[in-house]
Amino acid sequence: MEQNNDGGLTQVRHVVLVLSGKGGVGKSTITTELALAFRHAGKRVGILDVDLCGPSIPRMLSVGRPDVHQCDSGWVPVYTDAQKSLALMSIGFLLEDPDEAVVWRGPKKTAMIAQFVSDVAWGELDVLLVDTPPGTSDEHLAVLENLKKHRVDGAVLVTTPQAVSTGDVRREITFCKKTGVRILGIIENMSGFACPHCSECSNIFSKGGGEELAKLTGSVFLGSVPLDPLLSSSIEQGKDFLQSFPDSATFSAINSISQTLLESLQT
User: Fold this and answer.
1) 148 is in an annotated binding site
2) Is the residue at 58 inside a domain?
3) Is 4 domain-assigned?
4) pTM score
5) Domain limits at 110?
6) Does 106 belong to an annotated binding site?
7) How far apart are CA 30 and CA 34, in angstroms?
8) Strands (E), 160-251
């Protein structure tokens, strides 16, 4: 057993939830890219993947299925780099079979989330991003209940431009207000298609739904991220998109959003 006394969230400066009322809007992609952007900005970052039924971040960060070790103060997170500047804990690490379905009732999910929040030895982090499943279910309430001992800075809400998505995210905003979670801002993902050949952005879906939702609810609009094949392939291959394509419009969008978020957290 490893020796480590930096248990729980005692040395975590900021905690940010990544939420959406709708599945398939790219929460995990946004979480991953924000974490990488924060790391490139010189921050020590952690990701807590509590999407118990669809833990995809280990693949997005190309960490495979390593053994999770324990120290005196709990589970040791998996680090994605030698400098230990990006730490990750996911249910995906604890499944014997990567194709295994997590068929758990609410109490078991709640107990696992409680353990994730309290028993991971994160050590010193500038930002911990919590990637949540869609909706406003047991998992979200369990996360908030177990984070009560530690200040949650707020939530970033992810939507796509279409009304069917923004309607569900509106309900997530209501959830945040009812539970007292500050809304740090809204991100519109898949906002247009960025052509990898000419860089022109075409609106395959609608556009501006996230910005309109922010105006209607009095929330901060953090920015739009296009549907970019280069980003999609980077995520699929577990590569660092921001490092590979620093001249792309998508890089500029993600970098701008991350900088705005960091400034918001520091105030």
Assistant:
1) no
2) yes
3) no
4) 0.89
5) 15-266
6) no
7) 6
8) 183-194, 201-202, 221-227
List of residues 6+ apart from 27 with CB closer than 8 A: 18, 19, 20, 51, 131, 132, 134, 158
Whether 28 has a binding-site annotation, put simply, is yes
In a domain, 199, yes or no: yes
Q: In this structure, what CATH number is given to the domain that contains residue 139? A: 3.40.50.300
Is 100 domain-assigned? yes
* 198 in a labelled binding site: yes
Q: What is the pLDDT along the chain (267 residues), one digit of tens a residue?
A: 444 445 688 899 999 999 987 778 889 999 999 999 999 999 999 999 988 777 889 999 998 777 788 888 789 999 998 899 999 998 888 776 666 766 777 788 788 888 888 889 999 999 999 998 877 677 778 888 888 778 899 999 999 888 777 878 888 888 888 889 999 999 999 888 877 777 777 777 777 888 988 998 899 999 999 989 999 999 999 999 999 999 998 999 999 999 999 999 987
Label each residue of 43-56 as H, E or C.
CCEEEEECCCCCCC
Q: Is 206 annotated as a binding residue?
A: no
